[in-house]
Design a protein that fits this description.
Largest interface: A-B, 87 and 64 residues
Helix content of chain B: 25-40%
Distance between the termini of chain B: 81 Å
CATH class of the largest domain in chain B: Alpha Beta
Number of helices of chain B: 12
Distance between the termini of chain A: 70 Å
Number of strands of chain B: 13
Shape of chain B: flat
Largest sheet of chain A: 5 strands, mixed
Structural class of chain A: alpha+beta
Mean pLDDT of chain A: 90
Radius of gyration of chain B: 30 Å
Number of domains of chain B: 3
Largest sheet of chain B: 6 strands, mixed
Helix content of chain A: 55-70%
Mean pLDDT of chain B: 79
Low-confidence stretches of chain B: 97-111, 378-384
Order of helices and strands of chain B: EHHHEEEEHEHEEHEEHHEHEHEHH
CATH superfamily of the largest domain in chain B: von Willebrand factor, type A domain
Strand content of chain B: 15-25%
Oligomer: heterodimer
Amino acid sequence: MNPKDELKILEDALQVINAKAKELGLDFYNMFFEICPADIIYTFGAYGMPTRYSHWTFGKAYHKMKTQYDYNLGRIYEMVINSNPCYAFLLEGNSIIQNKLVMAHVLAHCDFFKNNAYFKNTSRDMVESMAAASERFREYEFKHGRAKVELFIDAALSIQEHIEPRIMIRKGEELRKRRQNEHKRANHAEHPETPYDDLWELEEVRKDASADEKEKKFPKEPEKDLMLFIIEHSKELEDWQRDIMSVIRQEMFYFWPQMETKIMNEGWATYWHLRIMRDIHLDVNETIEFAKMHSGIIQTSRTRINPYTLGLKIFEDIEKRWDNPTSEEKERYGRSGGEGKEKIFEVRANENDVSFLRNYLTKELIEEMDLYLYKKVGNEWRVDEKDWEKVRDGLVAGLTNGGYPYITVQNGDYNKNGELCLKHHYEGTELDVYYVEKTLPYLYSLWGHTIHLETVLDNKSVLFSFNGEKSSKKFM
Amino acid sequence: MSGGDFVISREDWSLHRKGEIDRERHREKVREAIKKNLADIVSEESIIMHDGRKVIKVPIRSLDEFHFRFDYGKQKHGGQGDGNSKKGDVVYADPQKGQGKGKGAGEEPGVDYYEADVTIEELAEMIFEDLGLPNLEQKKKPELASESVEFKDVRKKGIASNIDRKRTIMEVIKRNALRGEPGLHGITPEDLRYKIWDNTFKYESNAVVLAMMDTSGSMGPFEKYIARSFFFWMVRFLRTKYNNVQIVFLAHHTEAKETTEEEFFTKGTSGGTRCSSVYKLALDVIEKRYSPQDYNIYAFHFSDGDNLVSDNDNCIKLINDLLKVCNMVGYGEIEGAYYYTSTLRTAFKRIGNPKFTSVTIKDKSGVYPALKKFFSQTQGEAVN
């Protein structure tokens, strides 16, 4: 088809889809759709963004994705950016009907970006700030040499997940707590509210007693934001290096909400492309092609959870249960029925994957979908857990903290020698030892002194250390 | 635009090369990593036994993106069944790997270490980069293989079937542009360009590898594997230097015979070892089929050195005979489970000819140094 004609057809289709989406209640930013050739879409997919800095790890991701595409093993139909206006890229060579589905899907993603609470603090101008950062990185390469910059980025990326994504919430909470405490202290003596109120008092007193000791501690409270701690306190870094780390940290803040709402976001988009496509006119051939593509999207796997399918199922289930509550639900929760749509919009605004699964992944759904946990036994991976609560909790555990180990800075002056001591908060899953030993040297290059990491192996506390020359491991 | 409006467009992305540039950088790093690990990769089973596949997978740990992560093998993961899953069902079975695989070989479904796709040719190029071919002699009668035609020039006159369309069109555009009427219109006879050919002669050079191996009882699968790795690369290396490389497999215990490749690497016999038998056969094969005037001959013998002591003197004599007709003769001794102090290698120390090399290989990673030793250029210079 003539590209111009194709564009016209898509424009007309989008008109219809756009109107339908709005009519159904979706609320999204202005949209820029672009049709791009495969290598461009895959580049954006690998970098997560059209304007990001250059690094071989993106080249590696790009190579992997592009090879799959070239061998016809996988295909990205679209790529959508959390920005205002919202950019969405469509793969050149998508058929008209594929593009229709994709456009409907993308509008729902954009609605999610715009309205979900976890995206509230994401920068909507990231396309521009990433372009500017990428420009600065290039200057650093000219000034300090490509190899040096590359090595530094390698090191910074090795700890990029260790930020505190709740930093905004945390700041607000601290403020609220302080106010509450003041309020409590003022009122407490006269109006004890419960018999246990003096327990709070005890904690306060104990805190005061240890306050002196705490003053000397560095950091005062264990710090989850390892990136920030190093940016602020490392004596090794030059300004350009701090800038690179800050950029990588900011980009992680930007991507984090997408990681922690993957199931919801894909489920939401899938839910809506189904609804919208159902409502617009399709001829017989289009209907068949649509059905094929949709079933490809929600295909399940024995070894992993398909976020599109799981998210879709949960949203549909919520809608059903709030539309037609059982008599028990009516009585216990006061659901009147017919509130399905309202409820799913509320869920999409307030939850992330962890709370979404925790609150709405029911016994019935787990059994109907035949979800399970599996683990390695010898050379085989076997189904290990079918009990619905354990399955749900297992899935939630895998999503907690983005699926990354929870690590905090305990001491920035360990052994009174400027050494850095980290602690992995062990919750039943051991770290990959080989990876620990390979990551510590990167951290060393950022901190400049010996690095320690406390974790648990075989139910025993263990301290990994790297002193610039060799790594060691000692059980405590 | 108010909220929820849209624009749809198509731009020219042809100059956007970012992904390709970083992909190239990644490829460079893959090559660096492979070079650093050649000793291990050279004897990698998946390559030697690659059953004709062109692209092989090379595990490269150094290109993992290291960070703190959970031990995948000790984690529980979520999956979805077809409705009837039961506790204990096998979701995925790891493919059985051969022995001696490196740490953390990718057993996990869906994740783990990075494998680079490399073609055998690329790998060979890296391995042979600093290897030369010693004792390369121009054979007297290079076989005249074929007369071929090559287009070498462009002229204004020629035969119509050889019009160079691209250049002709360029001329048209150039002429029109000069006249101030740019565009592609009005082809005149002056615009026509023709491709002109030349006859060239392609000379072929021939080489033959005499792969000799002790297949007596003391040579186990490990020893044969080492020999196999060595011959695999040897043949590939010689192919980069000669048009035709043939390989002849000569197996022996107390007697020698010519075998197929399959038999050579798989069949074993019991009994003693008399290495002179295979040298005799090699000389025989050379005399009958591969005249040293036409062929570059490379003879290499693998054994564990457990030869009949009474046979050693005879071996030395025959090796010296081989050296007269071969470009190189090599002897590789594999120190396997059986290790004897009085070995053939000790006896071969008496051979002073620089065309003779002997190497000892203890384990898989010894194959690469052995190749390097056998094909190192310095030795060749010593001869010339």
